[in-house]
């Protein structure tokens, strides 16, 4: 039986994991700087968990200011095998009603200028990303929502925009035309980095509003978003506790943990020793 460590990155509204026992807090430094805040470790339903608030303590970081590389690096360094991303999102479809939960399976990356890879500086690699989330961890999230009778959607596509301003009406229509069901600001590059770090990654999205496309609806105001978010966060905590019950001893049969087997192009002998040492938590399994 394997012992997994399940990391959770909490988005807007989710700044802690209630019910966590034997809590310790770790300040981590990484080659990319500090993560969004200290990493909280503990046990939930018998499973070892790590928690990080994406926007920092007191919500001080905008989506574009989040040090995604430091966040994923820190969690991997502390032993994470799985990463559940929780994020507040806008709905681009009538049927994705505010207050409902969504398991995201695909992304369209519309962010700009974010550092989105652990490669570079002398190590080149390309990971497979056609299926950007872990099917097993996604199923666990889905089952966790269903078991609690929460309204939940599966197989959704999320467009990730730079923000921090919400979309114009024209942009909102454009995202719909591109095939997106949801609009968010943080799942990218988080999902790409998690894949490179060989973590099982899944995304529980909490629908807070209808974005700007739905002309008859009240245009998005952040106050409305915050109110719906509070009720969503309670559901997310329930789902996470449910997932924790089984995730600790889950036997991985997905390919997330062996992503780098055929991804790195650079010859090991050509990579500077200092870089190998620095990137050991990410590339150490294969280099
Ligand atoms: Zn996986």
What characteristics describe this protein?
about 290 residues; Rossmann fold; single chain; binds zinc ion; alpha/beta; 5-stranded mixed beta barrel
Briefly say what this structure is:
It contains seven helices and nine strands, in the order E-E-E-E-H-E-E-H-E-H-E-H-E-H-H-H. The protein has helices at residues 68-77, 135-147, 169-177, 187-196, 222-247, 273-278, 280-283, and strands spanning 5-10, 21-26, 39-44, 47-53, 82-91, 101-110, 152-161, 182-184, 200-209.
CATH-assigned fold name: Rossmann fold
Q: Hetero groups bound?
A: zinc ion
Number of helices: 7
Order of helices and strands: EEEEHEEHEHEHEHHH
Q: Sum up the overall morphology in one term.
A: globular
Question: What this model shows, in words?
Answer:
The protein is α/β, with parallel strands linked by helices and about 290 residues long. It has one domain (about 5-285): Nucleoside phosphorylase domain (Rossmann fold). It has seven helices and nine strands. The protein has helices at about 70-75, 135-145, 170-175, 185-195, 220-245, 275-280, 280-285; strands at about 5-10, 20-25, 40-45, 45-55, 80-90, 100-110, 150-160, 180-185, 200-210. A five-stranded mixed beta barrel has the order 5-8-7-6-9, surrounded by four helices. Strand 3 (about 40-45) and strand 4 form a beta hairpin. The two termini are about 25 Å apart. The model has no long low-confidence stretch (mean pLDDT about 95). The chain binds zinc ion. Zinc ion binds near residues 136, 137, 252 and 254.
Helix and strand topology:
Layout lengths: L4 E6 L10 E6 L12 E6 L2 E7 L14 H10 L4 E10 L9 E10 L24 H13 L4 E10 L7 H9 L4 E3 L2 H10 L3 E10 L12 H26 L25 H6 L1 H4 L4
Parallel strand pairs: 1-4, 1-5, 5-9, 6-7, 7-8
Antiparallel strand pairs: 2-3, 3-4, 5-8, 6-9
Helix pairs in contact: 2-5
